[in-house]
Amino acid sequence: MQNVCKRSKSAIFRPEGDSSMIPGGQDPLQQNFAETLPAEMSVRIFSELDFRSLCRASLTCRQWNDIIEGSDHLWRSHCLTVLAVCRREVNGDRLDGCSWKVALVRNYRKGCVKRRWLKGRYSNIRSADNIPPNSMCPLDVETWGEILEAELER
């Protein structure tokens, strides 16, 4: 028997008489992978997501949220990318006892803004009126010093 999915128009082949239903009556194609896989495998799958996708996935259902929120490893790997740009801020948060997730959330936007400034994305801005929206956030004096040094080297 051939079933055609209306959304993707792809064929799903099932032997005649096989309803491919699992106990509980749920179609395996509709089943949540986190319900059947060990938590470690789910964490491995979630570790392939970028920061924004990981945050969105944590909003999908309670089970995904529990797995994502409970795995400091997932947040640590993303936090290390922000750490490369915002070392003082992340290290300060970690010394204050913040989790990797909290340190990441507190410094992610700052890291993105700082990275753009250091790469010279805003080098040709001549006045405050020309700064694009959402391209600013509070930065400390030392960070502005780094940005100024980078601009002077250009």
Name the features.
single chain; 154 residues; mainly alpha; two-stranded antiparallel sheet; disordered N terminus; F-box only protein 48; ubl conjugation pathway
- End-to-end separation: 66 Å
Which strand order spans the largest sheet, edge to edge or round the barrel?
Answer: 1-2
By DSSP (H or I, 4+ residues per run), the number of helices equals 8
Mean pLDDT level:
78
- What is the number of strand segments? 2
Structural class: mainly alpha
The coarse silhouette is: elongated
Instruction: Report strand %.
Output: under 5%
Helix content: 40-55%
Compute the gyration radius: what is it?
Answer: 23 Å
Query: What is the string of helix and strand elements?
Result: EEHHHHHHHH
Largest sheet: 2 strands, antiparallel
Structure description:
This is F-box only protein 48. The chain is mostly helical and 154 residues long. Helix content is 53%, strand content 4%. Strands 1-2 form a two-stranded antiparallel ribbon. It starts with a strand and ends with a helix.
